[in-house]
Amino acid sequence: MYFCNPNIYPQEEYLKRLEAERTLCKHFDVELVEAEYNPKEYYDYVKGFESEPEKGLRCDKCFELRLKKTAEFAKSIDACAFTTSIVISPHKNFNKLSVIGEKISKNMGINYLSIDFKKKDGFLKTNKISKELGLYRQNYCGCEFAMR
Predict the structure, then answer these.
(1) Does residue 148 carry a pLDDT above 80?
(2) Domain boundaries, given as residue ranges, for the chain
(3) What was the pLDDT predicted at 140?
(4) Mean pLDDT of all residues in the chain?
């Protein structure tokens, strides 16, 4: 599991989410690799899109940044593919994320697995696991702009 979320604001929120991911990975005996927390990288990447509405072009740029970094990491460990758990949220557009992932896949030469984790009650299952493990559940996507 690769945790790369330079978009999360403030740092205290980032740390809560990271701790939840650590708990989840420990429970499922999955190795967690933590990317450096670098909010400046996020702000630089979405520069000019700050005023975009939620689910607009700023969000697309955010997804692109995080998926690129995930693809880079996957290539660095000789993985044959990458995907994202972002799509588990009913608030995220699966088709939009798939298009972004496929574009990165073609540009970087690594397969993108377009998996809709919401299918087969995926969102309900993740809620159940989260309650069983007492995981922190956020009430916004994570970026400073979504808090407004």
Answers:
(1) no
(2) 2-147
(3) 86
(4) 95
Query: Largest Cα–Cα distance in the chain?
Result: 41
pTM above 0.90, yes or no: yes
Q: Quick one: tokens of 12?
A: 């205290």
Pairing of strands 2-3, 33-34: parallel
Handedness of CA 38, 42, 47, 49 (dihedral sign): negative
Cβ atoms of 110 and 75 closer than 8 Å: yes
Residue 111's beta-bridge partner residues?
81
